[in-house]
């Protein structure tokens, strides 16, 4: 190992907290929604690893322009967002998904911490680990959480 190797930052394994069991029982929630006068299933139940990848593919379709619109907004207004939000602060990403949206802001925000919040625990854990390899100097925390009824940020944020 060369002398410079010892000084290179190592990508830390992101901390991960699964808060999904803190709320309602998913089985009870599904039974109640299916027994409603107009039965439904909340979209959060489709965001397992496969559903998350399917959503990624949908985001690339011409019929789904939102992702590209967000990219343009960040490209055009990233500096203004940073001026308003401030630098070197925690970046909390609600509905983080594959974390790509927030990663586009890393350069302008220089976050002191990245907190990715999403219902799809396994998908988030996988994507957060890959992100940590690309940004080893940014402490990262993944929160698997259904925040539709409220957001609980742990003291680690």
The profile of the biggest β sheet is: 4 strands, parallel
Shape: globular
* Low-pLDDT runs: 1-8
Strand order of the largest sheet: 1-4-3-2
Radius of gyration: 18 Å
- Strand-residue proportion: 5-15%
Order of SSEs, N→C? Answer: EHHHEHEHE
The beta-strand count equals 4
Q: State the share of residues found in helices, binned by percent.
A: 40-55%
Q: Round the mean pLDDT to the nearest integer and report it.
A: 87
Specify the number of helices.
Answer: 5
Structural class, from secondary structure content?
Answer: alpha/beta
The separation of the N and C termini measures 35 Å
What key phrases describe this protein's structure?
13% strand; 5 helices; globular; alpha/beta; 157 residues; 4-stranded parallel sheet; 41% helix
Notes on the protein architecture:
With 157 residues, the chain is α/β, with parallel strands linked by helices. It contains 5 helices and 4 strands. Helix 5 links the parallel strand 3 and strand 4. The longest helix is centred in the middle third of the chain and has 20 residues. The radius of gyration is 18 Å and the shape is globular. It starts with 14 loop residues before the first strand and ends in a 13-residue tail after the last strand.
Element layout with pairings:
Blueprint: E1 15-18, H1 26-34, H2 49-59, H3 66-85, E2 90-94, H4 100-109, E3 113-118, H5 121-134, E4 140-144
Parallel strand pairs: 1-4, 2-3, 3-4
Helix pairs in contact: 3-4
